[in-house]
Design a protein that fits this description.
Layout: E1 10-14, H1 18-29, E2 33-38, H2 46-51, E3 55-58, H3 63-67, E4 71-74, H4 83-90, E5 94-97, H5 98-103, E6 109-114, H6 119-132, E7 139-141, E8 159-163, H7 166-169, E9 179-182, H8 196-204, E10 215-219, H9 223-230, E11 235-239, E12 249-252, E13 255-260, E14 263-269, H10 278-293, H11 298-306, E15 316-321, E16 324-328, H12 335-344, E17 349-354, H13 363-371, E18 375-379, H14 383-390, E19 395-398, H15 402-412, E20 417-421, H16 434-457
Parallel strand pairs: 1-2, 1-4, 2-3, 4-5, 6-8, 6-9, 7-8, 9-10, 10-11, 16-20, 17-18, 17-20, 18-19
Antiparallel strand pairs: 12-13, 13-14, 15-16
């Protein structure tokens, strides 16, 4: 990485959530004169920031503060399309993101994982596999903790496994992953990106600074990702659920295998994977591909994957009540993710959907819902959109709260089936984030369990 020194420089960090706070602390430790600004009047960690010598400018982002900076570091939750950033750039101020900042000081290599769906699962699993092999492989980035918090513990032997979003990638300049994985790509975040093309261009930045000595891990089942990866210079390692694809890591006769010129190396049985849904199996293939590039032996991969039951809020089995499975896929915040969730199930199905719509074609979910005779339980701002997309194909019922949604879903498939929270929307109309939404779903399932148990004891 380019030598980077901020000692004595005026640096403004915009955004006081986790990554912004971590960036401000890192900059202060490196000798910068740091101001953190946020639209909110109060932020978590304010006292610690002041104690570290960081000045706070809360309640707005003063244009003059940004114009007078020597460097601006933007949190991923802040859109750089705002006029204040254009004005700052016009004044000669460099604007970068927190991932870019931290990467300039890392001493180890970076594995960067992006895509519309599956980033967190793949990142967490890849980091666990590498760690099980005895490597220093902390996970972080978009799924937390912030990469800035890993800089001080980074060594030349470290492999930082980093989930990167389009918001983080659009503010990169020199970010250079040794391994960059693009899992899939479908329309998302169109409430912030001006177009699908802009969203895709942001994702493609994960490959921009790679050389022929690096690796691009690409989903051979997704033509869009293949096309994007072809533009890069890195060597390709493909993964696929289809053994006819010619991918390096694929599935053959119930086994995950690695193919090479020397033949097939069996990694593990598919039956030993404990995750729900083919899309999560694809994430396992991606993580296994990354691990094999890093030199991890197949038995280590198999043992780690077999012990991995998935992440909270990603196809998480919550409970089974009177034959009805409740599955929390609150991370399914876009249309394609919801489609994959729906198509995982084969029996009777109720899907809790809705929230703040981010764009995309809800019609893509319609066929899967109709084929299963599903009931859609609509919540939040998107309720009218859900009726418009699904009325006439499936039953759509409205719910006024998560508790109401869980119970209406249960009634729709009572006696056997599944109720899945697959919102296809952001959570911000009703909840702080997708995790709060998922926790609310699980809490209501727990209440339903208590009610059913009590009724059965009577």
């Amino acid at each position: 990485m380019t030598a980077f020194d901020v000692s004595g420089r005026r640096v403004v960090v915009v955004g006081g959530a986790g990554s912004g706070v971590a960036a401000a602390h890192l900059l202060a430790r490196r000798g910068a004169r740091v101001v953190l600004t946020d639209l909110r009047q109060a932020i978590d960690g304010a006292d610690g920031l002041r104690a570290a010598g960081v000045a706070l400018a809360l309640g707005g982002n003063p244009p003059e503060l940004l114009r007078d900076a020597e460097l601006i570091v933007v949190s991923p939750g802040v859109s750089v399309a705002q006029p204040v950033f254009a004005a700052a750039r016009a004044a000669g101020v460099t604007v970068i993101g927190e991932i870019e900042l931290a990467s300039r000081w890392l001493r180890g290599r970076v594995v960067a994982i992006t895509g519309t769906k599956g980033k967190s699962t793949t990142t967490s699993l890849a980091a666990r596999i590498l760690s099980a092999a005895g490597l220093h492989a902390p996970a972080g980035g978009n799924l937390g903790p912030a990469l800035s918090g890993q800089v001080d513990s980074s060594t030349p032997e470290s492999i930082h496994v980093v989930e990167v979003s389009s918001f983080q990638l659009e503010t990169t300049v020199e970010f250079h992953p040794w391994i960059a994985a693009l899992l899939n790509l479908s329309p998302d975040h169109l409430d912030r990106h001006a177009s699908v093309e802009e969203y895709s261009a942001a994702k493609a930045r994960v490959f921009v600074n790679q050389t022929e000595h690096d690796w691009a891990v690409v989903n051979a089942d997704d033509p869009v990702t293949l096309d994007i990866a072809k533009r890069g210079r890195a060597r390709q390692a493909r993964f696929s659920l289809d053994p006819r694809s010619g991918a390096r890591v694929t599935v053959v006769d119930g086994w995950i295998v690695e193919r090479s010129a020397d033949g097939e190396v069996p990694i593990m049985r598919v039956a030993d994977v404990r995750l729900i849904g083919p899309h999560l199996l694809a994430d396992v293939l991606a993580a296994a591909t990354i691990a094999r590039i890093a030199g991890v032996d197949a038995p280590v991969i198999a043992e780690t994957v077999a012990a991995f039951t998935g992440l909270e809020h990603a196809m998480e089995l919550v409970d089974t009540i009177q034959g009805v499975r409740f599955v929390n896929d609150s991370k399914a915040t876009n249309v394609e993710s919801a489609r994959q969730s729906v198509e995982t199930f084969t029996g009777r199905l109720a899907v809790v959907m809705g929230g703040r719509f981010k764009g995309g074609d809800l019609g893509l979910v319609r066929e899967g819902l109709a084929a299963r005779g599903a009931t859609v339980v609509a919540i939040g701002e998107a309720t009218p959109l859900l009726h418009g997309a699904f009325d006439g194909a499936v039953t759509v019922v409205d719910a006024v709260s998560m508790g109401d949604a869980v119970r209406k879903g249960f009634e729709a498939v009572r006696g056997g089936g599944a109720v899945v929270l697959a919102p296809a929307c952001a959570s911000f109309d009703m909840f702080e984030n997708y995790a709060a939404r998922g926790r609310a779903f699980k809490a209501e399932v727990a209440r339903l369990r208590a009610e059913v148990d009590a009724a059965e004891r009577r």
